[in-house]
């Protein structure tokens, strides 16, 4: 939330004092937005890593706020730069949601030791910031929703939430529709243009992040040959240097190499791959059974971005599209796990929690740096 200078003076973006809600948010609104899915492949790297937190916090504290709107709102505010800081009439705004110190403290955050806040400040820690800021933003949404229902103003509650954030909730209550035009609620033409442009920007980002869940198309890629050989145990050679693979796993590896190029070789889209591994720390893993391979579109330990991220999504989507032919048991990628027959939950697959073995926030533990493929035999 940033203060904005306008021709007629200074517009200070401050939150109204808490109001008594006139009515609770309707179940129909919460139901409608719960169906909105997230296009996980379109997310910036940090947004992808924090999607699990966003989904959990909205589900437990603000079900009427769809995760895709959180993703878009933060993008509009900070571009998903958790260290972002901008000076304004309130001294400065920091972090993912660009909150000034007063609002950050009202959200339960710690006072800043200085301006701008130090790198170690909680306002600049992405997970902490979201866990505090999302409920605070939800308060704006609920205040605006109550006012809109009581006055029958036509503005959608989520748009009014944006007005609260960029210009203060007084612009919602003081305008005829809930979105101020020039001359309303102390808003001149510059203020009105700022508000309308901000709403349009967030809407565009909502469309970007919620259009057709999943990754980029794979229609241009050839289909794999179906796996036909019955499992005979871990009897096939592992081309990545491990002990052995099942025939089904080796078939999947060969088909991936045919379509995407041999991992680590010129002309391919995958940097490396690893299949059989003892995985002593995870005795239930498919790797020591020869039934799993990991494919790295980027360097191990790094969160992929740009073309590398798209390459990973292309592989994950191709495997999903041809799960039957390749006898796919499950795929893990970008902090999500997909299993044939299981419905998607607010994005591609379901949130992956590491199974108590891996750190789901780590590049490798969360399977951000590699696509994990397990086959059924």
Automatic annotation (TrEMBL):
Residues 220-241 are annotated as: Disordered. It comes from the Bacteria. Residues 243-356 form the ARB-07466-like C-terminal domain. This is ARB-07466-like C-terminal domain-containing protein. It comes from Pseudonocardia sediminis. The lineage of its organism: Bacteria, Bacillati, Actinomycetota, Actinomycetes, Pseudonocardiales.
């Amino acid at each position: 939330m940033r203060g904005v200078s306008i021709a007629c003076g200074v517009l200070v973006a401050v939150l109204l004092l808490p109001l008594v809600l006139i009515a609770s948010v309707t179940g129909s609104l919460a139901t409608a937005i719960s169906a909105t899915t997230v296009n996980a492949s379109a997310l910036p790297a940090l947004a992808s890593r924090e999607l699990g937190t966003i989904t959990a916090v909205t589900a437990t504290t603000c079900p009427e706020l769809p995760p895709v709107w959180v993703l878009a709102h933060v993008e509009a505010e900070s571009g998903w730069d958790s260290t972002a800081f901008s000076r304004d009439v309130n001294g400065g705004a920091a972090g993912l949601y660009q909150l000034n110190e007063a609002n950050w403290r009202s959200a339960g955050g710690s006072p800043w030791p200085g301006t701008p806040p130090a790198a170690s400040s909680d306002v600049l820690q992405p997970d902490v910031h979201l866990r505090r800021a999302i409920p605070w933003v939800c308060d704006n949404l609920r205040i605006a929703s109550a006012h809109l229902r009581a006055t029958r103003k036509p503005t959608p509650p989520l748009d009014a939430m944006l007005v609260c954030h960029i210009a203060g909730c007084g612009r919602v209550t003081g305008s005829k529709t809930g979105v101020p035009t020039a001359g309303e609620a102390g808003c001149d033409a510059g203020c009105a243009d700022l508000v309308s442009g901000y709403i349009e920007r967030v809407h565009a980002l909502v469309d970007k992040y919620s259009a057709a869940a999943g990754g980029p198309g794979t229609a241009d890629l050839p289909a794999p040959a179906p796996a036909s050989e019955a499992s005979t145990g871990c009897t096939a050679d592992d081309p990545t240097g491990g002990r052995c693979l099942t025939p089904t796993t080796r078939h999947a590896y060969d088909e991936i190499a045919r379509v995407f190029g041999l991992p680590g070789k010129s002309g391919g889209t995958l940097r490396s791959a690893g299949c059989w591994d003892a995985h002593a720390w995870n005795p239930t893993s498919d790797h020591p059974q020869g039934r799993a391979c990991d494919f790295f579109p980027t360097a191990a330990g790094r969160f992929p971005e740009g073309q590398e991220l798209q390459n990973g999504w292309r592989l994950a989507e191709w495997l999903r599209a041809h799960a039957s032919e390749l006898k796919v048991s499950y795929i893990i990628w970008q902090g999500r796990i997909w299993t044939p027959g299981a419905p998607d939950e607010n994005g591609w697959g379901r949130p992956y929690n590491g199974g108590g073995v891996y750190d789901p926030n780590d590049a490798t533990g969360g399977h951000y740096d590699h696509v994990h493929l397990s086959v059924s035999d």
